[in-house]
Design goal:
With about 130 residues, the protein is an alpha+beta fold. Helix content is about 20%, strand content about 30%. It has 2 helices and 8 strands; from the N terminus they run E-E-E-H-E-E-E-E-H-E. It has a 4-stranded antiparallel sheet, with helices on one face. A two-stranded antiparallel sheet has the order 2-3. A two-stranded antiparallel sheet has the order 5-6. Strand 2 and strand 3 form a beta hairpin. The longest helix has 14 residues.
Length: about 130
């Protein structure tokens, strides 16, 4: 079971959904490497509109010619573990933006079978404060 609370570091990688690494989606390669590195977790979010260094607006609206929508890969873990992972991002990211933000993790417990009963519920009576 993974537990992470307190001060942490969030790395966010902003890329295009068509960006690839060895013919595989770049966002998928980042997630798999984060997993292999033992990081607490990674999520990929697909944007509906945005622009970057090219100044071209990419949008999901009907009749748009763009299909290379923005993607954000978000990873949160301890500062040490995130910083140890940064060289892998250096290798993978040729175009895009990587940001680091200090954050505070209120509560994170990895699923272990006993956590499933309350997953997704908020305001549960008798819930202990952290």
């Amino acid at each position: 079971m993974t537990r992470l609370t307190g001060n942490a570091l969030r790395v966010t990688v902003y890329i295009g959904e068509n960006d690839t690494w060895h013919h595989k989606p770049l966002y998928s390669e980042i997630v798999h490497r984060a997993h292999a590195a033992g990081l607490a977790g990674a999520s990929v979010f697909r944007g509906i509109e945005g622009f970057g260094a090219s100044s071209l607006i990419h949008t999901s609206r009907l009749l748009s010619l763009s299909e290379d929508l923005p993607v954000a890969v978000v990873i949160v873990d301890t500062e040490t573990r995130v910083r140890e992972f940064l060289p892998q991002l250096d290798e993978l990211i040729t175009e895009g933006l990587v940001t680091l933000d200090r954050c505070e993790v209120i509560h994170y417990v990895g699923r272990d079978g006993t956590q499933g009963a309350n997953r997704g519920k908020t305001g549960t009576k008798g819930k202990k404060s952290l």
